[in-house]
Write a structure and sequence with these properties.
Layout: E1 2-6, E2 10-16, E3 31-37, H1 39-49, E4 54-60, H2 62-74, E5 78-83, E6 90-96, E7 100-103, H3 112-122, E8 130-134, H4 145-153, E9 159-163, H5 166-170, E10 179-180, H6 184-190, H7 198-210, E11 215-219, E12 225-228, E13 234-237, H8 250-264, H9 269-284, H10 292-299
Parallel strand pairs: 1-4, 1-8, 2-6, 4-5, 8-9, 9-10, 10-11
Antiparallel strand pairs: 2-3, 6-7, 11-12, 12-13
Helix pairs in contact: 1-8, 8-9, 9-10
């Protein structure tokens, strides 16, 4: 089983206008939609698309939490959310006009008692399972939350993937996560430099490996991706051709594809990189997460 943790999931309310957003005036939408957001939820949904068993963990609250949970279950996703007493699951307004505007909600208040429940749930995970931590930490939680959770799981032999920025990522490397996935800009930011060549990317990836990371997967937008695997071997792959229409969830899809490829192939890093790239690209070429059909089509040309 692959478990994902999303601390602050959301319902994204997406509205499209036939022109620019005019502040102070009534703006009428020409279309509207809603999507269930959260990096861990995106990972679980893509894993489900790829035929993997997955369970989404995290926190929900209020009637919006009910809507999120029920909607995900109707989509076929297994969830084990912890219900929080104070606040509500956030709604994010995404306004697609001449320019894009976003208004993101706050999310519920997660208490120490709620975190204790999550720790108890994570304690049931076995070495045969995989766990994914992704995204930022809500302001109601301490900045070392990832560290504390990984410390509780240290030495258990669980494959843990972490997709987070800068200090959140650096501070967990001492617990030897199975997979970390910075993009090339984030990787350069960690070491205070702009990375312009593959050699520079590999050099910085090796530094993260020396700090404790096992597999370092670096996404590079239209330039593809680079993997420095746990054996110290670097793998480079390009990006399939296609029109990018959506950047939301592409990185999450890559994480899901990599894990699915690694587990399905019995540990083939090259195949994991190919499937991760196909899944990430399929989402980038789609209005929502990429479909199984498109992923297989892109995988065939990689």
């Amino acid at each position: 089983m692959i478990y994902t943790v999303t601390f602050n999931p959301a319902i994204d309310y997406v509205v499209r206008l036939n022109g620019p957003l005019v502040p102070g005036e009534i703006n009428r939408a020409v279309s509207e939609d809603f999507q269930f957001g959260g990096k861990g939820i995106n990972v679980s949904n893509m894993l489900r698309t790829l035929g993997m068993e997955t369970t989404a963990l995290g926190f929900i609250a209020g009637f919006t939490g009910d809507g999120l949970e029920n909607g995900l279950r109707e989509m076929g996703l297994t969830t084990e959310f912890i219900r929080v007493e104070k606040g509500m699951t956030r709604i994010n307004a995404k306004i697609k006009a001449a320019e894009e505007t976003e208004i993101n909600g706050m999310g519920p208040m997660i208490t120490e008692k709620d975190m204790t429940k999550l720790i108890a749930r994570l304690d049931r995970i076995t070495p045969e399972d995989t766990l994914v931590f992704s995204g930022s930490i809500p302001s109601c939680l301490p900045g070392d939350t990832y560290e504390k959770l990984m410390a509780c799981l240290d030495g258990r032999g669980i494959r843990i993937a972490v997709d987070a920025e800068k200090n959140l990522l650096i501070n967990v490397l001492k617990y030897h996560p199975f997979l970390i996935k910075p993009n090339n800009l984030e990787l350069g930011d960690i070491f205070g430099k702009k990375l312009t060549t593959d050699e520079e990317v590999v050099e910085c990836a090796r530094k993260l490996q020396e700090m404790g990371g096992r597999n370092i997967l670096v996404s590079m937008a239209g330039a593809g991706a680079l993997l420095l695997d746990e054996n110290g071997v670097s793998h480079r792959i390009g990006c399939p051709s296609g029109k990018v229409v959506n950047s939301v969830g592409a990185g999450d899809s890559m994480v899901a594809g990599f894990l699915a490829g690694y587990l399905k192939s019995g540990g083939d890093h090259e195949y994991a990189l190919r499937l991760g790239t196909a899944a990430g690209s399929a989402t980038a070429f789609s209005l929502r997460l990429g479909s199984r059909e498109l992923i297989e089509e892109l995988l065939a040309v990689l």
